[in-house]
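Subject line: Sequence and fold of a protein, written as structure tokens
Area: Proteins and the way their chains fold up in space.
Start of record: The labelled sequence and token lines come straight after this line.
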Amino acid sequence: MNHRWLEWAKQIQAIAQTGLAYTKDVYDRERFEELRQMSVDILAHYTETDPGKIKLTFASDTGYATPKVDIRGVVFRDEKLLLVREKHDGVWALPGGWADIGLSPSEVAVKEIKEESGFDAKPVRLLAVLDKKFHGHPPEPYHIYKLFIRCEIIGGSAETGIETSAVGFFGEDELPVLSVERNTEAQLRTMFEFMRDPDKPVILD
């Protein structure tokens, strides 16, 4: 399916948000507000979602428009990869989530691993910085960068959290059904490449 309409809506929203942040002209502000509403109308038309909900989640930020940042912790034990089953969709993902204000990327990875799997971990190295639009994820209204950070277990034990219903370690040939919104099979196989080759260069984009 062609999702050009979604890319256009995201670009219009970004232009409108940035314009509203910097314009000093009352007439320009009115035009930027119209552009923002246009982006909401496009999403509402194609997704059949309530425009009020779209405006609240998609078109309510202020300031210069920037991508969101999703951080994933990559943990191996006995050559198997730590995954958690998400309550939201019932399928599996690397522990992780949105970057938090006040925390570094490594701190977010450690926090998410603890909250979602029960394990205490320490960060080891950055493995990849990926633009989600290039990697086979389902279309969505946000532009997202994904950071994959290798971590090592230093304590704790397997325990589910508020957002997870199961914790497990999986070999490369026994991967469960994945939450492709969060991570793809190709990405996880790349993580196994890093396990086999600790000197593999960081992947960008």
User: Anything to note?
Assistant: The longest strand covers residues 119-131. The domain at 68-204 is CATH 3.90.79.10 (Nucleoside Triphosphate Pyrophosphohydrolase). The chain has a mean pLDDT of 94. The chain is about 35% helix and 30% strand.
